Every structure is written in structure tokens, then in C-alpha cells.
Amino acid sequence: MSVPAAHNATHATLSDETWQQLEDRLAGTPAGPRVRRSTVRRIIVIGVAVVAAATAGWLGAVWLPGLDLPQSGADLPGWTFFAILPLMIAGPVCWVTAIVRGGGNLQSAISDPTLGLARADRRRIERMARGRQPADLQHRTALVALAGRRINRSTSTFWLALGWTPFAFAQFLLNWGTWFGLLYALLAVFFLAMLLWTVRKRRQWRAFLQETEPRAGAEPTPAS
After folding, report:
1. Residue 174's Cα: distance from chain center in Å?
2. Structural contact between residues 195 and 165, judged by C-beta atoms closer than 8 angstroms
3. How many CA atoms lie within 13 A of 111 on its CB side?
4. pLDDT grade for 216, boundaries at 50, 70 and 90
5. Burial, 127: exposed, middle or buried (Cβ in 10 Å; 0-12, 13-18, 19+)?
6. Which of 104, 108, 111, 188 is the 20 to 30 A CA-CA neighbour of 149?
């Protein structure tokens, strides 16, 4: 009996109040004080986590027991320079592209239209906007606007991850066999996973737009 209940909960209809709040936020209505406080707390937590991770990495590299490991760049074949250099150049190029193409998305990231909604409601709306759950046809315009905004917001994430992946891998090769090499290897894996996740989400949003409103999904796609 629990399976039908879970199925009904997944496809439960959202209240008109929830849809109205989403549509108002998409239209540019400022968020309430509670949502703004939640956003500020989220930014503070992320900032503290980044600083703590950087501090932990630096302290680990300085205070961990010294091991007889090779120095950075030692014993690397000469040809690796020609492999590392393009990777080092690709990183900053992608970062500049992220700023140029997605630099204006910081404010939209802070004012996410789904902030303030219940977690279950946000999950249902996001699944609808990605075509993973039947969309509410009465609120198709809001879902199309949300999917389009998600694509625009993910542009900077895509280019940042695309730049950090080869850059971290190049640093891993340069610091092979050292603690910093291990750190850069983990960073390379992390940003590669972020890149693949972003590409997957963008494909789902674009597919939803093309299915719902072909003209809204007419964003150029890479040739296969």
C-alpha cells in the first residue's frame, strides 16, 4: 500500500499559492525577508566552507609528516610540457568565457525564484522543468520561464567547470607524487563531475523547452 501513496505524492498537484509565488518571483517581485535571510545564511555557509577547505588544505600540506616524495615536476618526460601547456591555457580562457557569457547571472543566482518554497514543492517544480515529471499545463508559461532561466544560469557553471577540469589535471601532472598533486587530482575529479552534471541538466532543460515550446528551445546546440 505504500507504493501507491508514494506515487500519488510524487504527482501531487501543487497549490495555486505555490504557483503564484513562483510566477511572482519570475516576474521580478522581490523576495520576502525570510527568503532574503535564508539566502544570506546560505552565502555565509558557502563562504565559510570554502575558507575552511582552503585552510585545511594549506595546513595539511605544511604540517603533515614529511614523506620522501619527489619534488614538483620531477622525473616528468619532456613531452609532458606540450600536453600540460594547452591545459594550462584552456583554463583561463574558459574562465574569461564564463565571465563574459554568464557574468550577469550572479544576481539571478542569489534571487532564485524557487527560494522560499517547500522542499517537496521545489523538487516537483524542478522535475517538471526538466521533463522528468508530467508538467502542469495550466502553468506551462512559468515552467518554460524557469527552464530558460536555469539554462542561462548554468552557462557560467558550465564554463567554470570546463576550465577548472583541465587546469586541475595539469596541476596534478606538475605535482605528481606530492600532497598538492593529490589535492589537484581530487579537484579534477570534482570539477569533471560538476561538468558532467551541468551538461546533463542543460540537456534536460533544453529538451523540455523544445518539447513544450520549440521556439523557446531554439538555443544552438553543438553538432553531434
Report:
1. 27
2. yes
3. 14
4. very low
5. middle
6. 188
- Phi then psi dihedrals of residue 72, to 5 deg: -60, 130
Dig out the grid coordinates for 27 from the structure: 516576474
**Closest to 128 measured CA to CA, from 20, 11, 27:** 11
Q: Which three cell numbers stand for residue 112?
A: 532564485
Q: Is the pTM of this model over 0.85?
A: no
Question: What is the SS3 string spanning 42-75?
Answer: HHHHHHHHHHHHHHHHHHHHHHCCCCCCCCCCCC
Residue 180's nearest CA partner among 86, 58, 49 is 58
Of 83, 97, 53, 59, nearest to 186 by C-alpha is 53
C-alpha cell at 60: 595539511
Question: Can you say whether the dihedral through the CA atoms of 27, 29, 30, 36 is positive or negative?
Answer: negative
Question: In sequence order, which residues have a C-beta less than 8 Å from that of residue 220 and are 6 or more positions away?
Answer: none
Provide the grid cell at 108: 539571478
Distance separating alpha carbons of residues 194 and 178, to the nearest angstrom: 25
What is the C-alpha to C-alpha distance for residues 142 and 150, in angstroms, rounded to an integer?
12
142 three-class SS: helix
Task: Show Cβ contacts of residue 119 under 8 Å, excluding neighbours closer than 6 positions.
Answer: none
For residue 13, the 8-state DSSP code is: P
CA–CA separation, 130 and 219 (whole Å): 16
